[in-house]
């Protein structure tokens, strides 16, 4: 807004600067969410790598940790794991509504862009200027589709990486023979297992409406495919033809206004 100052500042101008090109709000939501999720994932990864450095089976040996040090370390690891899971839950409660809106509007934006590529962009333009504008709109639409897909996939990969790191420590605990441990260490291991079973059901979600993981990609793909296939089957319907013509007129009007 400082480089290209608008002639007048009103609601429409603000919407154009922040929600259209270059999609400032969308990038802010993605960047902040990805930064926080990657930060938490790195902490879970560090915690898992620290567990690998502990004595095998949590059994003390000559020249290694004492049993009291092992018990104290297991307690600290368990409490740290619990605090990190609480931070993830707090982030889900605080940012879940934002992510819900982000994924919802991203889906509708993808649907609108694909609909434009399939139906509206195929209309031939009479003049060379209109043909150039149509080609430019197609290129921008493809670029926005790629941007939306990359942003959504990056967030889903980050959340799935965190979920993987949360339960990765289970494989470490399953290798421990609890019956051979002292009572204090045995108690910490059992508390840790119970803690993991509780957090396993508390998955990261978009404000409770759906879980955010890699399966969401398949759900979005199926929904997009079903909707677009239905629109292709009804492309000769009078209402669909009228809608496509109105959409094309709207795009021309927006380009002339800009």
Give structural attributes.
single chain, transmembrane helix, 258 residues, mainly alpha, elongated
Summarize the structure in words.
It is built from seven helices and no strands. Helix 3 runs parallel beside helix 6. The chain is elongated and about 80 Å long. It is mostly helical.
Briefly characterize the structure.
By secondary structure, the chain is mostly helical.
Helix/strand class: mainly alpha
Largest sheet: none
Number of helices: 7
The gyration radius over C-alpha positions equals: 26 Å
Number of strands: 0
Element string (H = helix, E = strand): HHHHHHH
Please give the alpha-carbon distance between the first and last residues: 15 Å
Helix content: over 70%
| Oligomeric nature of the chains | single chain
């Amino acid at each position: 807004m400082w480089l290209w100052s608008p002639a007048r500042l009103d609601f429409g101008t603000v919407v154009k600067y922040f929600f259209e090109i270059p999609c400032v709000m969308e990038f802010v939501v993605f960047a902040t969410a990805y930064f926080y999720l990657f930060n938490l994932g790195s902490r879970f990864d560090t915690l898992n790598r620290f567990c690998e450095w502990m004595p095998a089976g949590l059994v003390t040996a000559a020249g290694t940790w004492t049993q009291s040090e092992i018990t104290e370390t297991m307690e600290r690891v368990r409490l740290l794991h619990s605090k990190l899971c609480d931070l993830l839950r707090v982030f889900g409660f605080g940012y879940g509504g934002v992510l819900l809106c982000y994924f919802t509007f991203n889906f509708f934006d993808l649907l609108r862009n694909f609909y434009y590529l399939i139906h509206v962009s195929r209309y031939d333009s009479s003049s060379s200027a209109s043909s150039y504008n149509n080609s430019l709109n197609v290129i921008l639409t493809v670029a926005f589709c790629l941007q939306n897909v990359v942003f959504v996939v990056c967030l889903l990969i980050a959340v799935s990486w965190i979920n993987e790191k949360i339960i990765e420590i289970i494989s470490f605990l399953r290798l421990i023979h609890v019956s051979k441990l002292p009572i204090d260490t045995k108690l910490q291991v059992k508390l840790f297992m119970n803690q993991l079973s509780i957090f396993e059901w508390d998955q990261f979600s978009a404000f409770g409406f759906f879980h955010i993981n890699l399966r969401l990609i398949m759900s979005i793909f199926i929904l997009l495919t079903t909707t677009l296939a239905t629109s292709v089957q009804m492309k000769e319907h009078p209402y669909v033809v009228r809608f496509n013509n109105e959409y094309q007129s709207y795009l021309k009007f927006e380009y002339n206004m800009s």
